[in-house]
């Protein structure tokens, strides 16, 4: 079953094309980081975090390994290796009635990988800001 | 849409009845912890870890807040507060053709919550072993 939101997402990831986030994200999009509790609110911040994630993870052997799709939510499980550490995580995506992503949450395991992503994302966000 | 595996899971969680894991889990069940990369293989170890999780989280205001269900997988997002720390996580459940759970993966956010669960689960597993 094809889903326009997920199709657009996968195309963006395959091409490592963070610029396409402008079309994919809703104006009121919210990003929930695997590291920090406080949500990052708004399209600009969500784009910033997702761009950094795409740059950090996109340089690895990142691939999706499981996809569970509902009416307005999908959970995409991924795996990759970074600095010799296995990273396993989920992109939890919610979209609005227009098919735009308005909520994006990432969770990571195991603990070593959360700590690694914390460090790498911090470095990347400092460069981007 | 009712799903016998998920119905049994929810009933078990509502009653905090870890004994029901015997019926719910497949013999070759595998548990993937939010903390450690190495899978815990077999029904006995999976039951041990899930029982500990039910005891640790079951004492809190644990509740499911989102459910995404596929043909043979479901992702149940939960939230609770433990020791004043917000815990947000997913139970990623895969079942076999007999409807028994053969793969159970947990991911937790944010980082503070992973560290807290690491400590509390460690204590609980030491008591149980």
Architecture overview:
Two copies of one chain form a homodimer. By secondary structure, the first copy, chain A, is an alpha+beta fold. Chain A has one domain (4-124): Nuclear Transport Factor 2, Chain: A. Helices cover 38% and strands 36% of the residues of chain A. Chain A contains four helices and six strands, in the order H-H-E-E-H-E-E-E-E-H. A six-stranded mixed sheet of chain A has the order 2-1-6-5-4-3. The longest helix of chain A is centred in the last third of the chain and has 18 residues, at 111-128. The first copy, chain A, is globular. The mean pLDDT of chain A is 94. Chain A binds chain B through residues 32-37, 66-70, 73-75, 77, 86, 88-90, 92, 105-115, 118, and chain B through 32-37, 66-70, 73-75, 77, 86, 88-90, 92, 105-115, 118.
Largest sheet of chain A: 6 strands, mixed
For the biggest β-sheet of chain A, the strand order reads 2-1-6-5-4-3
Order of helices and strands of chain A: HHEEHEEEEH
Please tally the β strands of chain A and state the result: 6
Computed Rg of chain A: 14 Å
**What is the helix tally of chain A?**
4
């Amino acid at each position: 079953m094809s889903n326009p939101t997920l199709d657009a997402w996968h195309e963006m990831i395959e091409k490592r094309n963070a610029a396409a986030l402008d079309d994919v994200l809703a104006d009121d999009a919210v990003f929930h980081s695997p590291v920090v509790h406080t949500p990052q609110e708004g399209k600009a911040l969500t784009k910033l975090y997702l761009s950094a994630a795409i740059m950090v993870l996109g340089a690895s052997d990142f691939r999706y390994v499981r996809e569970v799709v509902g009416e307005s939510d999908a959970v995409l499980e991924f795996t990759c290796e970074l600095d010799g550490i296995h990273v396993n995580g989920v992109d939890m995506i919610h979209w609005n009635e227009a098919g735009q992503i308005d909520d994006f949450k990432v969770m990571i395991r195991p603990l070593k990988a959360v700590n690694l992503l914390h460090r790498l994302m911090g470095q990347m966000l400092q460069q981007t800001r």
